[in-house]
Specification:
Blueprint lengths: L4 E3 L1 E4 L7 E7 L2 E13 L4 E7 L4 E7 L4 E6 L2
Antiparallel strand pairs: 1-7, 2-3, 3-4, 4-5, 5-6, 6-7
């Protein structure tokens, strides 16, 4: 993802890590994730398109090799 900002994400992890994101640190605070619009696998790890309770549409990517999350606004 280009222009992604490293961020913090809480997620549900059942049989594997990062199964479903629950909240994201975005624009200075924590935002609950209202719904996951799409999810897919990339060579780097999992990716999600989400809508937060505050109305932000975001793309979240978990980069497994770096054990880090990136977030970018979706327009």
């Amino acid at each position: 993802m280009t222009n992604g900002l490293q961020t913090l994400v809480t997620c549900f992890s059942g049989h594997t890590y990062a199964q479903r994101p629950r909240s994201v640190q975005w624009q200075g605070g924590w935002q609950d994730i209202l719904t996951v619009l799409a999810d897919w696998h990339t060579p780097e790890g999992r990716a999600f398109r989400v809508l937060t309770a505050a109305g932000a549409a975001l793309e979240l990517r978990y980069l497994a090799e770096r054990d880090a999350w990136e977030a970018a606004a979706v327009t």
